[in-house]
Each structure stands twice: as C-alpha cells, then as structure tokens.
Amino acid sequence: MVKSTTKDAQDLFHSLRSTYVATPTNLKIIDLYVCFAVFTALIQVAYMALVGSFPFNSFLSGVLSCIGTAVLAVCLRIQVNKENKEFKDLAPERAFADFVLCNLVLHLVIINFLG
Amino acid sequence: MMAGSGLRFLVLILAVAICGAASVFQPISDSHRSAAVDVFLPVDGSYKSLGEAYEALKTLEILGIDKKSDLSSATCENVVKVLGSSSSTLKDAFYALSVNGILKCKTGEAVLLKDIVSQLQAGVKGAKSLLDFYYSVRGLVLVKEQFPGTVLSIGDAEAVFRSIKTLSQTDGRWRYSSNNPESSTFAAGLAFETLAGVISLAPSEIDQSLIQTLKTGILKLFDGIQKYDDGTFYFDEKSVDASQGPISTTASVIKGITSFAASESTGLNLPGDKIVGLAKFLLGVGIPGDAKDFFNQIDALACLEDNRFSVPLILSLPSTVISLSKKEPLKVKVSTVLGSTAPALSVKLAQAISSRTKDSSVINNQELKFDADSATYFLDSFPKNFDVGKYTFIFEIVLDDSANEKVYITEAQTKVPIAATGVISIENAEIAVLDSDIGSVESQKKLDLTKDGAVALSANHLQKLRLSFQLTSPLGHVFKPHQAFFKLKHESQVEHIFLVKTSAKKSELVLDFLGLVEKLYYLSGKYEIQLTIGDASMENSLLSNIGHIELDLPERPEKAPRPPVQSTEPLSRYGPKAEISHIFRIPEKLPAKQLSLVFLGLIVLPFIGFLIGLTQLGANIKSFPSSAGSAIPALLFHVGIAAVLLLYVLFWWKLDLFTTLKGVSLLGVFLLFVGHRTLSQLAAASNKLKSA
After folding, report:
1. Can you tell me where the transmembrane regions are (chain A) (predicted)?
2. Chain segment B474-489, per-residue pLDDT in tens
3. DSSP structural state of residue B411
4. In chain A, which residues touch B (CB < 8 A)?
C-alpha cells in the first residue's frame, strides 16, 4: 500500500511537471512573479516571528503588499490564459492595464500605511 | 442649626433685594481735567486728523482747559486748507467746520462761503446714507451758527425730513442706509441730531405730525434701554460684533435727544429717572483711558448739563467714612454732572440702616445744614445710638421750586454706603496658664495690649494656655473684630496662627497643648507670642508682641511629621524651584541592527531568484515596438510607471498624502493616455498577427 501511494505521488508529480512545461511562457512568468511575492511575504513573517511585531502597521503593510500583488497577478493570469473560456473576449492588454492600475493603487495605500 | 443658618441666608437675600445696590457717583472733577490734558494734548504738536482734533478740542473746551496757541494755529491751517479746497469730502468739511466753531480761525479770502454752502447743499440733495445726511445737514447748521447772516436753505425741508425718516424702524432703532438691513442704536442718535438740524434750518416747513411720529420713535427707543442694579441706565447695541460700545452708543442717543429737544417747536417728555440713570452711567465710567470714550463721556455730559427737558443733579460725598472719635461732620455735595452749582434745594437724610439690624433705621428724616461758603450740606450731630459699623444712608433731595429757569431732576432716593469708625476700648486683657484637668490657674498675667510687653510664661504639654480680653464699642456694646489672630513663633522660625473667638461677653482663646503637640511638631523651646486685632470700623487696630512662653513638649516619635524647613531668606520662596523629572514612555525594544540588515539581505534574495527565473524561462522584450511612432508611447509608459513608483518612495521619505495624491493624479492622467496608446497599438499588432 505504501509503495503504491509513493508511486502514485511520483506519477502525479511527473504528469504535473510535463503538463506544466506545455504552458505558455507568459503564464510561466506570471507564476514566477507570484512565487516571488509569496516568498517575500514568508520571509517577512519569519522576521516578525523572530523580533516581535512592534511597528505592527509596517509588518501588515509589507505582508499585505506582497499578498496583494500576488492576488492581482493571479487575476491577471486567469484573464490572460487563452484556455479560459470566460475571458475569451477580453484583450490581454486590457487585463494588463487593470493589473498595473490596481498595483499602483495598492502600493499607494501600502506606502501610506507603512509609516 | 441648619434651619437657623438657612433662615438667616433667606433674610439676607430679601434684604439685598429690597435695598438694591448702593454706590457713590462723583461728578466731573479736577482729576478728570488733569487726565484730559494727558490724553488730548498731542506730544508732537499736531493732531492726526480733523476728527481727532475736533474731539480733543471740544473736550478741552467743555472742561475749561486752555489750549496752546501753537496747536491752535497748526490746526487752523488744516481747517482753512480743507474748507478752501473743493475736493474735500463731506466728512472732512463737517469736522473742519466743527473745529472752526471752537477755534474761531480767521478764514480770510481763501475760503469762499458760497462754495462750502453749495457743496453742503449738493451733499443734502445727493445723500444716499444716514452719514451723508448727517455731515451735510449738521455742516449747514454749523455754517449758520458761525457766519450769521449767510443765506442758506436746505431745499425742500419736508422731503429731506421724510427721506431721512424712511431709515427708521419700528423698534426705535435706525438703519445706516436703505441697502443695509442692519439697524443700530448709535445710528438712531445720529438720525435725531440730523433731523433736529433740519428742523432748526427750516422751522416752519415741517409738519407737526412728522415731529410727533419722531417723538413716539424716541420713546420706543427708550423702551429698549438697559440697566444695572445700581440704578444706572445705558444704551447698547444688540448685535455682538457692533463697532460701537455702550459709552459711544449712549452718548450718541443723548446728543441726539438733547439737540432734538433744543428745537423750539418740540416738547419732549422723557422719564426723569432714566435721564438721571444715563447721567450716572456716564459718571460711573470714571476716567476713561481711551480718547474716544473720554470725548463721548464729556460731550454727552455737557449735553445733559444744559438741556431743555431736565437737568440731572448728582449727590456725591467726598468721604463716606464717619469717624466717631474725630467728631467731624458728614459732608454731602449736590451739583450738576459737570460739577457746576445746583439751584436752591434741601437735602434730607431719610434713613440710616445699619448692616446689623437691617429693618429699623437709626436716623430718620434728618435735615442737613447748608454751608454756603463751600456749597456743601453737612450732618454734624449723630444720635446717641449711632455705633461703629457699616450703614446704608438714604438721602432725599427736595428742590425749591421758586423760579427755576431750567427743569432739574434728581433721583427719588440716593443710597450711599457709609462706614462709621471709632476707637474700640480693650479691657481685661489677660493671659494665663492653666492645669488641664482641674482648671486651676498656675500663672496669670494682666496685659496692656496697647504696647509691647515682656511677659514670660512656661508650660508643659499637660497644661493649657488661655488668652482673654474684652472689646467694647464707643457705645458700650460688645465688639466682634474681623481679625483676631494669636501667633506662636518658635526659635526655629516655625509659626502657628490661632483664631481668637468672640462670644457675646468676651473674646477668648484656649490652647490645650495636649491636643496640639503634633501640630507644634513636638518642638520644645521658647515661643514668641504675638496678638493681632483688626477691623474696618476699628481706628486703633493693633499688633502687639505680648512676650514669650517656654513650652516643654515630649520627644518626637518616629512617625511624626517634621517641621517644614524654614529658609532664612524670606524672599527665597520666589527663587527657582526644584527641577521636575518627567517620566516618559519607555521606548519599545527594537531588534539588533545586524539582524535587521541580515533580513534586508534575505528579502532581496527572492527578487534575485525572480530575475534568474526570468532569464531561464527565456523572457525577452522582443515585441517592444521598434518604429518611432510606437516606441515613444511605450517608453513613456514605462517611464510613467517608474515615476509613480519614485513618487511613492518620496512619499514614504518626506512628502505628505495630499501632495502625493496631487502628483499621482497628474501622473495618472499622463499614464492613462500613454498606456492606452501603447496597449492599443500592441493589441492592434497582435490582432493583425492573428488574422494574418
């Protein structure tokens, strides 16, 4: 039983990897950006765990900036993905423009909250 | 005990309500004149404006102070200049004529009377506001007074009267112009003076009915008069941000009604108590510090001094203290507001109510004698039961109605607070040391409190000290002083003060040292004894050093309070105090600097990872437009985004939100245009590729 589950996991992993290679480059770039944002957030959380949350607003500001931008990138990925039938009529440039605008507003609020 | 004190309080309230406030008003005196010299004579020899010059010269004239001749000549030059020029305003011409009336300048050929008259008549015709009417009409009146024989007419007097009358309101106040809805009492005074001027210039042309409506308007204005408790009446503006205060408003109304009453054809009946009240208000101001208030006060009082309807008389006392020991008479003066002599009259002291008894009067209906040399009335005999203390004297004035040219008016009753002082005799003063339980006297000394003594006593903490004396008023009643303090002062300068209580028979203080040991800080040793007795009615208040007492007190226990440190320098209490150490909030513990720097490096790592990943994926900028038309918007788009991010960094560093928002909005609009351009070009390019 254990052997089959590990073999299943390995098979699953391999199939995921092969499918992923087929995704278009621009989606991979967005995925990479999301990973970067999440990693940055994790490092900030680790720092807070280490030294305490004294300027709590700064901590929140930093973490929410990373998470926020990751969320916006995920939205962009959904809208730009050609396999997604819902957003067939939406031009990817329009989605990108929304992404840029929302990021700018998010970062204005973040900088104000940073203190 | 509560009910008793409550009842006494109620009686006091009722008594105050019935009696009303008593106060003394003094007519204008030499102190006013010397103050006027300081206020009104300019240091550099000339006045700043003709208006100021008029106010100063009029006040000095009323007070009878001589003006300097060089001042007059400098002002006269100014007057002649203004009257001679044809471009001077109505206000300047009015003040120039007013000053001329006082100084009587020699105008010469430079001033053509015809030009001034025609200018003022044009002013009357073309007047749009109350002030225009005031300056032009009063100017014409002044010309008529100063240059008799000049023929001048005000035009259609009735029309002028009516057009001024349109500015009146139903509550008695007037507006400054038909455009301005605000009404003011000060403007009412100006209006009355102006209308009085119109009547005096054309006496037969004005209809009696118009004058009657004006009289009812004046009475309506008097309905809005305000008063204080001491019987003074005054006018004040109702609006909070009025430019005129109560003195100038009251003065303006008084000037208006007296000039109106001066017209022959009118007969004005104003309530007498209000006229006296207005006079008392102006006198109650004392010596004003402001030049304008001073002028208004003196000018209004001069109008009241000599008017046709009623001249107020003021009862004043040079001194409100009767000394029973000196046996001097109480002097009372009756004069007009400016200090001139009053007509024949008699002054009666109706009642003298003591502050202690309050319901019965000590003196009743005593006529005061008249001393013609000093023009004062005096009371030199007091009844036998007139003791020291505070009294309220109620005076009544009775006028001899024989052939007075003017109508005089006084208050019905003038209440004056009087203090009677006398020598209080001190008897049976003695100090004794008693044994506490039995009460037997260990040592007793008689005291003479009129001089310092050298009594030497000694006591220990089980004994008591008793001080007693009797204070008697000149009539033999027991006297209770305001202040009776007994002070014990230790060698180390520590002082203790005790109050001596007065009962119905005598004044006594008993100090039980057993209870006072802690208060005296357990300090044994020599104490100086000092007694202070004082009162407003007592002419021989005293402070006497009786002697000293040796006190033997037990040792101080551990917990007892220490005596306060007495500094040798008496003025040291005014020196610098101890420094206050403030307690601030403890700042939060921040992490070590190196740790923070390490994590700063760690944060950069994911970014580097992102860049490496991008290169591995083969991300490129091949589709960056190459042609010039498309490259510029694309470039500007990237530059715009970089600019916004830079603005955010600046915002975090030093800017505030509002500046940033302004910048963001500007850059945002720019980005919108440029971004739309770029992205639409990209979209068009990709569409072309798709279709192709």
Report:
1. 30-50, 56-76, 96-114
2. 888 888 999 999 999 9
3. -
4. 25, 28-29, 32-33, 35-36, 39-40, 43-44, 47, 50-52, 54, 91, 93-94, 96-97, 100, 104, 107-108, 111-112, 114
